Amino acid sequence: MPSPVDAPILTADAMRAAEAACAASGTSLATLMERAGAAVADFAWRMAAGNPVLVLCGPGNNGGDGYVAARWLARRGVHVRVAALAEPASELARAARRAWGGPVEVLGDDLAPAPLVIDALFGVGLSRPLRKDLAARLRGLAKRRVLAVDVPSGVEADGVQPWAPALSADVTVALGALKPAHVLLPAAATCGKVVLAPIGIEAQSSLRTLPRYECDSPGAAAHKFSRGMALVRAGPMRGAAGLAASAVLRAGAGYAILSGASGAPLSAIIAEDGDHFAERLADERLGAVVIGPGYPASDALDRDVAAALKSGRALVLDAAAIVSALPRLGGAPAILTPHAGEFARAFPGLEGSKIDRARAAASKSGAVVIYKGADTIVAAPDGRIAAAWPGCPWLATAGTGDVLAGACAAMLARGDEAFDAAVAAVSWHISRARAIGPGLVADDLVRA
Q1: Is 140 annotated as a binding residue?
Q2: I need a surface site. Which of 8, 19, 130, 441 has the fewest CB within 10 A?
């Protein structure tokens, strides 16, 4: 399910720093816990629909949130049971348990289930995988609806470790800000629907979820060149370049040229089979150039990439063109669109989460990087990041990456800064795919 739009994402360390800053400004951690527990209770009340609720509490502050939620649910007349993994280990959690005041069961093998389970065991504080015996006990509660507090227990919040939770969530309540695990595989797939609960924390971050796509209409005085002109260089597999050129027009540019092809999929595309590439690169009206779709590594590709780089035009580089361009990219405005295999070839040896690796690749290359996949990440050299989970699963088909490259060129050609152009293109791509839905093929994305 779609993540909250244009929402901040904080790592575990950044979240702790934000909480500390909030406390320093006069809002106590106890107040934050009370707000968090009340928010969890509100979502749980709606999910339970009058049925009993079982709250699983861990020893830390995530467990404290669970005790607060239990108290609020009981006030609403919900039949609530609380089961603890261990005694509270923090003063905040101990105070929350005392305020709960009701019985606390042991989270053992004989724990009776309930229609709704609130997972408040570990949250973002987990530093190692769940013990096997605990995971087995939790799996005994499977097939119930699960609401996770911050992240499902067993998930590493920063998305670096591929740990799996014993209980996948139907709904995850992100407290104050989203966490990287909410937007990165494999963890994101276990979070269910992620909802953001503001609890009074100033969550300022250069890492955010994708904004909602807005289609801007051309102005009354617009013409084909003012809307943007883009050039797509065809390789041996010309259908891929044709998809990219079609996307240039469908994503909002006014003029598309397909260089190195005798025909085009749309009559409005200017197809040029002769060697006019250098001449087109010199056209002052040209706003962006696409190289790479359907163009495998070769001397011809290297020559075309070199010519495009020399022209100083804004570039969209896909597939083998990325590796060809990297050693000489310099300061040319560029968007790179690698999938996982291409990313590994272009940027070997990078470590950390997908967000960390995308950020490092953008910094190293000086280009905006769209690290494609179900959990697409858009990274700028200055550290800005947009996370596009969950995308659209129907995009997992041949040619959709070529369409994305063309959409990037359209946004660049109309004058967008490279990061904004990449974010707009990814948003357009996903929005269009969701509108088409089952059975999508790449050609559908560029049809009316």
Answers
A1: no
A2: 441
At 336, list the tokens: 């790179």
127 annotated as ligand-binding: yes
**Mean pLDDT of the 72-84 span:** 97
**Is 324 part of any known ligand binding site?**
no
Q: Other CB atoms closer than 10 Å to residue 128's CB: what's the count?
A: 9
> Cα Rg for the chain, rounded, in angstroms?
25
Mean pLDDT of the region 6-33? 93
Question: What is the percentage of the chain residues whose pLDDT exceeds 70?
Answer: 99
DSSP E strand stretches across 70-178: 80-84, 104-106, 116-120, 145-149, 171-175
Is 280 labeled as ligand-binding?
A: no
Nearest-angstrom CA–CA distance, 172 and 43: 10
Measure the CA–CA gap between 265 and 83, rounded to whole angstroms. 62
275 labelled as ligand-binding? Answer: no
Reference 375, options 194, 195, 190, 188; nearest CA is 188
Amino acid identity at 53: V
357 is in an annotated binding site: no
Q: What span, in angstroms and rounded, lies between the C-alpha atoms of 181 and 157?
A: 5
Task: Say what the pLDDT of residue 2 is.
Answer: 67
pLDDT of residue 216: 77
Domain limits, the chain: 12-208, 229-445
62 is in an annotated binding site: yes
Q: For residue 112, give the nearest of 74, 81, 154, 145 by alpha carbon.
A: 81
How far apart CA 196 and CA 198 sit, in angstroms, is 6
> Sign of torsion, CA 174 179 183 187?
negative
Query: Cβ contacts of residue 92 below 8 Å, gap of 6+?
Result: 29, 30, 33, 61, 64
The DSSP code for 378 is: E
- Given a contact cutoff of 8 angstroms between Cβ atoms, the answer to whether 34 and 175 are in contact is no
35 is in an annotated binding site: no
> DSSP code of 75?
H
Report the alpha-carbon distance of residue 52 to residue 113 in Å, rounded. Answer: 9
The residue-averaged pLDDT of 201-228 equals 87
Per-chain mean pLDDT for the chain: 94
153 is in an annotated binding site: yes
Residue 309 marked in a binding site: no
300 DSSP β-pair partners: none
Handedness of CA 289, 377, 428, 214 (dihedral sign): negative
The Cα–Cα gap between 318 and 240 comes to 11
CA distance linking residue 219 with residue 319, whole number of Å: 35
12-208 domain in CATH 3.40.50.10260? Answer: yes
